[in-house]
Amino acid sequence: MQTNRLRVFLIAIFLQLQIASVVAILQGVSTQTREQLDENARQSLMRLGIAVADRAHSYLANASGTTTMLAEMSAQGLLDTGDSAALISGFLPVLKSRDAMGNLYLGRPDGSFLFVTRDPDSGSGFEVREVVVSDTGEHTAVYRRLDDNGALIDTWTPEGRVPDPRERPWYQLATTTTGHVWTDPYVFVRSGQPVITSTIAVRDANGETVGVIGADVRITEFSRYLRDMTEAGSSSAMIIDADDRILAHSDPQLVDTTSEESLPSIGSLGDSDFEHLLATAVNHEAMHIGVVPAEEPAEGETLVMVRPLWPLGHDNKASWRLLVKIPTRDYEADLTSSIDRKLTLFVTVLAVFSLLSGGAVWKLTEPLKRLARDAGTDPLTGALNRREFEHSVLRLIASRERQATPDKLVLVALDLDGFKPVNDSVGHAVGDELLRDFTRRLGGGLRSNDLLARTGGDEFVVMLELDASADAFDIVERLRHRAVDAPFLINGKGHRIGVTAGLAEHRHGESLASLMKRADQALIVGKATAKNRSYRALDTTVSDSAAVDAKATDTLSAS
């Protein structure tokens, strides 16, 4: 009897030790896993910040690059600032190929003004607003409506005061600044949408201003991008300017400015989490990640990040900031539930250990992985994004010049023709599938060492590494025909589009920015000449790099 009691006592002690050991192990694993989840969450926030910063820079770079290019073309005599018809012919293809840009315009020192925009009433075609000055100095406004091809539909004279571009902030800012400059974000009166203007003065050989070119960029696109990036869980994100005004929000309705005259401030949202972090982030030029405690314990903590963005360039004093928050319950709920169950099931200790190891961590952090999508590729098409493309090309150029190989590098800028009407008429889902199919076709004609990236809505860029004797123009033409000759069959219906290409061969010692600029100039000039063809930038000097090899294209016919 005594022996049995001793055995029971020993078994009880053993079981208690077993229970204590398992509980200690599970608690240790729980703490370690939670720390790993927190670290993964922080890393995801940082990757999200990089992706948004890259997107913002690329988005706005299109506008600044376009206004700078148009100003240089004017300075070189390729675009006459006094010829409104020539300006309209140059502006229309740019607006067609740059969805982010809502308006392009030019103001002159005498008060005359040319403003080209997509037709705000019909959603298709264009509206041209022009202010002309008579010999007596009288200012008269004439408005015209054009179809998608630039043909005149209607002409009328507006009522009210004739606008004077010289009174506008974008004009005054450009004339007092050397080179390209951005305005502060503001609400465009007619559309009620937040915009920012890229502007630059065109000057003659004596340094006198002969015109100011401006391009309005719609910021609403950032809200849609943030919404897609934070679609999982209860996460939210916003972009604010240096004055704490909200430029974009993952819930676009919170920044609807259609009935407002100014951008809303962050204080108008009453978001205590963001306000708490901004109050503690003294240095606005550095990234801060913090944990905001909940007012109610059941709500859990919130992980919050503020990160500076420099889409306007680091020399611009007014930086933007990205704010993101993720409730910790989004990524800890599954973990807590799992641990509670396993504490009562000692016979499944090994399974618990296995669950709480690497595979489970990745599964439990799936919302965060969706939040921080691959920063190196375009999520829609799978092609490289601009940032990864530029990094890869820079490495390729450095390697080529270091080894002094006889091969040549050719940069090709591509812009789809006729994509916007398809996208607008049959919906974005069909448009997205068309972009994916185009990427597959184009990528199928490339070699493993070639690079393909999507840099905008329907804009792509390719880097070809070719033998010195290869005919780059012929290769680009074959790629172009391969991509668009056959109709795109989507949901049983065929859709036809074209693609215009501008190519430039890399010169020894040339920067990537110069190379991309020459290819883009060839594309812009080409689209204004005849679409669905290939155009080659002349490899002469930097000053005439905007010239296009017309002789090589005269023999081509539209596909």
Task: Considering the chains and any ligands shown, give keywords for the structure.
globular, Alpha-Beta Plaits, five-stranded antiparallel β-sheet, 559 residues, alpha+beta, 41% helix, 21 strands, Beta-Lactamase, disordered C terminus
Describe, in short, the structure shown.
The chain is of the alpha+beta class. The protein contains 15 helices and 21 strands. Among the domains are: 62-219, 2-Layer Sandwich (Beta-Lactamase), CATH 3.30.450; 386-554, Reverse transcriptase/Diguanylate cyclase domain (Alpha-Beta Plaits, 2-Layer Sandwich), CATH 3.30.70.270.
Structure description:
Helix content is 41%, strand content 23%. By secondary structure, the chain is an alpha+beta fold. The radius of gyration is 29 Å and the shape is globular.
- The CATH class of the domain at 386-554 is Alpha Beta
Helix/strand-derived category reads: alpha+beta
What percent of residues adopt helix (DSSP H or I)?
A: 40-55%
Radius of gyration: 29 Å
CATH fold name of the domain at 386-554, please? Alpha-Beta Plaits
What is the overall silhouette? globular
Q: pLDDT below 50 for ≥5 consecutive residues: which ranges? A: 349-373, 540-547, 549-559
Q: Please provide the count of β strands.
A: 21
Question: What is the CATH H-level superfamily of the domain at 386-554?
Answer: Reverse transcriptase/Diguanylate cyclase domain
Give the biggest sheet. 9 strands, antiparallel
N-to-C span: 101 Å
